[in-house]
């Protein structure tokens, strides 16, 4: 898998999140690690790249993120949806989800958090302390970013015929939908200008 994992220019990192897919957050501190699903993640700023995630204050992930000041954010695929549902449906305080699901991980480049194989984009993030945390919003700067070159290159997603390689969106219960086909249009003219 590492052969397909290619760096993404940090100034373009937020493009990976623009289409609103479900995400997985990995965290670690003091010998303990966790993974959780998060549908509320979005780009916040371009340079330096920043993003926002919602992590409930009562979760193990939140405890680990607050203690370490870092987290990993990954974009899982349709082929990884069963695991995404499992990590989103079980609390990490009760079980080591990474071990129980036998998830393959690799070491992050700049932070001390496991990153997940089976995804198509990875963000390494450092928390920016802010009052928003009292509302469960975590602001973070992206310090490293990479994507699977089979579906992302030249700063664009290009999902092909392998539907298991497409990012997915969580709806409710056990329902997801996959990212669809791309298309391009020309802007409608406004006042005679395009």
TrEMBL record:
Pfam families: Flavin_Reduct (PF01613). Gene3D superfamilies: Electron Transport, Fmn-binding Protein, Chain A. InterPro entries: Flavin_Rdtase-like_dom, Flavoredoxin, Split_barrel_FMN-bd. One of its GO terms (molecular function) is FMN binding. Residues 15-154 form the Flavin reductase like domain. Its EC number is 1.5.1.-. Keywords: Flavoprotein, Oxidoreductase. Its cofactor is FMN. It comes from the Bacteria. SUPFAM superfamilies: FMN-binding split barrel. Belongs to the flavoredoxin family. This is Flavin reductase family protein. It comes from Paraburkholderia azotifigens.
